[in-house]
Design brief:
Peroxisomal Thiolase, Chain A, domain 1; five-stranded mixed beta sheet; four-stranded mixed beta sheet; 32% helix; globular; alpha+beta; 10 helices
């Protein structure tokens, strides 16, 4: 694999915070019910801020932290399932706003596995481009895909963005293993953004919904079996033991899922940091949000081994092992 040197990490979340108590005013629920089932206390909701605007804030922070000019970027990849438009892509919009005139820009959609999938794509692009520089951002405005009258899904999701700037500089900070799997036969168990078809020439009479629909039991079982299996395959590929990993930076879908994965791997929760209480499930933004927080707090040092794992819509699962 090529060099994948992480030069900077950054995050941006909307100012508005919606607590569990706030949700009790619009849903038949309670703070205790939500916390017990999910581990979530609050989430950030973008009211007057677009997905693109959150991404621009992250991109500008990354450039400032790394001391790199926008026109030095070769690639901008955005992992999202909630872009502002079908076209232009969020990445293209960010590229234009920050003035990254030399960067190829595009979005990918692998839902909650998107950041891991996007990072592996960026790794492949950089491998053939010595000195190349790229940004990968996971960002979501999931609040527009939530039915705020459905307590089974409305309590789960939040908005936010985070990412990293990476360079192929030949250093030791790189991806050591990648494990990506897709289970399309299970795709209908977690859906969002299905819009009705209506043309002058006919319409689709099937009832569809733009809002999240989820078979919670199936998705829970999927996550708690496929995620630990993916982690183990990636560890084997990297030639590492689980106890050599400083942190398992997992998608923050549900606290119970993370605890179950830790138990299946016979590992202490000390290795599985959580921030779901503050942000909820932010899909593709989830892992980079947590990574950025850990770096900002000084909990991750250069040379640490990390396992980043995403799982969700598609259904998809992905793990990458990196040496930070």
């Amino acid at each position: 694999m090529g060099s994948f040197a992480i030069k900077a990490v950054a995050k941006s979340v909307p100012q508005k915070i919606v607590t569990n108590d706030d949700l009790t005013k619009v849903l038949d629920t309670s703070d205790e019910w939500i916390k017990r089932r999910t581990g979530i206390s609050q989430r950030h909701i973008a009211v007057n801020e677009s997905n693109t605007e959150m991404g621009v804030k992250v991109a500008n922070q990354l450039l400032e932290k790394s001391g790199i000019d926008a026109d030095e970027l070769n690639f901008i990849i955005v992992a999202t399932m909630s872009s502002d438009y079908q076209t232009p892509s969020t990445a293209a919009s960010i590229q234009g706003i920050i003035g990254a005139q030399n960067a190829m820009a595009f979005d990918i959609n692998a839902a909650c596995s998107g950041f891991v999938y996007g990072s592996t794509v960026l790794n492949a692009l950089l491998a053939g481009n010595p000195g190349g520089k790229g940004i990968i951002i996971g960002e979501e405005k999931l609040s527009k895909l939530v039915d705020w009258h459905d307590r089974s899904t409305a309590v789960l999701f939040g908005d936010g963005a985070a990412g990293m700037l990476v360079e192929n500089d030949g250093s030791s900070s790189q991806i050591l293993a990648e494990d990506l799997k897709t289970y399309g036969q299970l795709g209908s168990s977690l859906t969002a953004g299905h819009f009705p078809e209506d043309t002058p020439f006919g319409s689709n009479e099937k009832q569809v919904s733009q809002y999240f629909k989820m078979d919670g039991h199936l998705v829970y079982n999927f996550a708690t079996t496929k995620a630990p299996a993916s982690i183990q395959r990636a560890l084997d590929q990297a030639g590492l033991q689980a106890d050599q990993i400083k942190f398992f930076v997992m998608h923050q879908a549900n606290e119970r899922i993370v605890k179950r994965v830790a138990k299946k791997l016979s590992l202490s929760m000390d290795k599985f940091p959580l921030n779901i209480s503050d942000y909820g499930n932010t899909a593709a933004a989830s892992e980079p949000l947590l990574l950025s927080e850990l770096v900002d707090k000084g909990k991750i040092k250069r040379g640490d081994y990390l396992a980043l794992t995403g799982f969700g819509g598609g259904l998809t699962v992905g793990t990458m092992i990196i040496r930070y």
